[in-house]
Known about the structure:
By secondary structure, chain A is of the alpha+beta class.
Amino acid sequence: MSTQIEQQETESESEQEAESAVESPGDRRRAQKQQRLDEQKQAEREESTLDDEETITLKVFRYDPEVEGKQEPRFDDFVVPFHKGMTILDALIYARDQYDSSLTFRHSCRQAVCGSDALFVNGRQRLGCKTQIAELESPVRIEPLPHQEVVKDLVVDMEHFYDQMEAVEPYFDADELPDDELEEQRQSRENREKVKMSTRCIWCGACMSSCNIAAGDNEYLGPAAINKAYRFAMDEREGADRKQERLRIIEQEHGVWRCQTQFSCTEVCPKDIPLTEHIQELKREAVKNNLKFW
Amino acid sequence: MYEHDVIVVGAGGAGLRAAIAAHEEGADVALVTKLHPVRSHTGAAEGGINAALREGDSWDLHAYDTMKGSDYLGDAPAIDTFAKDAPEEVIQIEHWGMPFSREDDGRVSQRPFGGMSFPRTTYAGAETGHHLLHTMYEQAVKRGIEVYDEWYVTNLAVTDHEDPEDRTCHGCVAYDIKSGEIHGFRAKNGVILATGGLGQAFDHTTNAVANTGDGCAMAYRAGVPMEDMEMIQFHPTTLPSTGVLISEGVRGEGGILYNEDEERFMFEHGYANNDGELASRDVVSRAELTEVNAGRGIEDEYVHLDMRHLGEERILDRLENILHLAEDFEGVDGLDEPMPVKPGQHYAMGGVETDENGETCIEGLYAAGETACVSLHGANRLGGNALPELLVFGARAGHHAAGKDMKVAEIETGPSAKSEDGAVEPPVAPGAVDAGSDDVVADGGAAATPKGVVKGTVEEERQRVEELLEADGINHAEVRADVQETMTQRVNVFREEDGLKQALREIKDARREYGNVAVADPSRTYNTDLIHTIETRNILDVAEAITIGALAREEFRGAHWRAEHQERKDDEWIKHTMLAWNDGEPELYYKPVVLEGDEETYEPKERSY
Ligand SMILES: Cc1cc2nc3c(=O)[nH]c(=O)nc-3n(C[C@H](O)[C@H](O)[C@H](O)COP(=O)(O)OP(=O)(O)OC[C@H]3O[C@@H](n4cnc5c(N)ncnc54)[C@H](O)[C@@H]3O)c2cc1C
Ligand code: SF4
Ligand code: FES
């Protein structure tokens, strides 16, 4: 098995680290440990050779606000044995488990439902677990989602995204419920079909990260949140008053009218939600709704 | 230190339902979860959710099917409660806006599922869990329930009494993944564990990477016994390369299994002459592996699941995401080709022992969802019964923890429920390598006040983490991989005595190795290396418990198959295997199964499908 890892710019750091002003005994011990590890890694790297196995090179973004040598963002190369069917997530896990356990990224379900591993791969937002490496050009460049603050390596701060999702009051609010608690509200098949795509969102944040408007306007609700509003506004089980209220939310200054129909969100959505279309439809609904008052 | 009335650990379906229930009672409740709620594994559930909703169906039929499915290892009070509460719970999430699939008359659709005598499985396409999870999270947002997301709970703060039944849980300790800070969480009324499954004990599993059995292991080390851990469900239709699940809905809609000779083996080789593909999961899993072992598997590894004959329209309407899964993860177009499938670890029927109100033998400590074992599924869970379980028992745990008056539970818990000592001859002494040092129960000195108990546990955790960060040693990933491989090789669908013993030796070796584990990443910021290292410890404990239970149970019941014991031994084995930690020296004992239900006493019958 090939075990080559090339880290750029890391070698010289260990010395500096030992010199730097360390405060507590714990810090000092950790710094010493880091130094030992660096030396060990370097030795390993020098010994290892690539055999004939087919490999793939990942160029992975690295940053850690706390660790010396990683405070300046950089890219590390990882050479990973390639097999058919391998996804970006598989490769990252391999790199982490075999070469560098500090390599940090989110992931959980491995099946495109938890939405935690949206990444910027070769210049496009994708879910790591759903992206076959065979389809990509080598070397594969892996970065955190753009326009989001990086916490560490590939992990971005999702708070702003969550806040925008919550700003549209993302919960069902029926006017009236059947008296009998064992009786469901009726919903036509057509209506379910209409909202079906909008209910698929896994909150991965890819759309928001791909959107130029969101990049420039921090308050813009963004495609995912507007889609969430669509999901409820179009559900016939909520009453007319609630719909009014929902339209009011998405019509505010940083709402639907900001969208310039660039389709970038629709292109990257791993759940194939027709986001731009949903935004357009809400614009139309809003216009129709306003006409009623004039 | 953070303080709330009720603290729910985990925010999947069970945790969210518990939190909403506690909130309904007026409690100040918080969710502490290592993943943001919508990332929980409940979102992966595909097939559906069972409840007796229609004319011609009734709770007692549902209960009967569940008891039969459990192979008479379920406890009747749990099963009856479950089947009675399920309809209201399911309609309630419909009232919360859950986008269920619909019939022409606008009511929710139901479909047939394995082991069910009525088509009572309600569903939302093949993404039922996704919709359930999101719907419930939305309701939690609506109620303003506080969520600490990306906080990893490492330990429970429990008083240090000799007898677990005298202990009280006052809270827990959690690690803020983003900042690396460790804090105490004091729960005035109770802590509810809803940490989900333990599939990561195996290397071929349908479970998420986060499903590492944390809640189970934490409760175990705090003194709550683990119940029926050997009962692991293997799902017959997982994709060979990743373990991604192909829903039972495919077979429910009429999907057919073929072997290499294109025989419909479920019938042609007589595995289930009546129900064929819709026999219960254990039966189908064994049939598939038997085919593979007999040389009739494809590439000696898997069989084919074919849904092409269902037609494009029906597939797109009801099973669309199956097409995506087969395409994205296996490169197969389900409209054109049959899909490759093989059995994979899927569900833990066993877990933290609780009663019908979700309570454990430790006061103030509850468990619900997959991490718990109220003994609903017994030796085999029927498809579509886990989601209603987490609603029913999540709600009950939440209500009870928040102080609602509940009917006194019929299921007994804790050491006093013991009926006899267990007999098992492990080849190595199980349990901690260095028993005393890693004791999770807070020590006596600090235990004078509830806050003291939490503080003491926080201190221990800080120390433990500091040590892990400072020491040099091996990477946890090696240990984890070793255990996972052992489990998949030796504690799988087919189990043999020698293999189980070998597995215990290997787990012990892994424990020793774990003694040298250290975290290489020195950072406090988002240190996943540290979290995975702590999780690996939990995996070791649950893996060992599964194996000890499997060795002890010398019979063939439900999912548990033993080469040397090819029959169900009702005279001897209608009892639960219980494993208690006892300061690092696991003790095995048994507890009787309760077959006496509300209406009648369930009579064990042969399980034929
Ligand atoms: C692929 C798949 C398909 C399924 N399909 C069906 C189906 O169709 N029908 C059905 O009835 N059942 C199905 N099941 C079973 C069912 O989905 C699960 O049993 C159920 O969703 C588990 O829910 P839970 O709330 O107990 O756990 P989860 O949803 O896994 O949630 C666990 C929570 O605990 C948190 N957590 C874990 N450890 C910690 C810790 N140490 N600290 C803090 N937080 C922690 C996690 O962040 C998460 O929020 C399926 C299961 C799988 C894997
Ligand atoms: S709309 Fe699509 S891209 Fe945007 S968060 Fe949801 S799933 Fe991700
Ligand atoms: S790991 Fe869950 S979406 Fe990729």
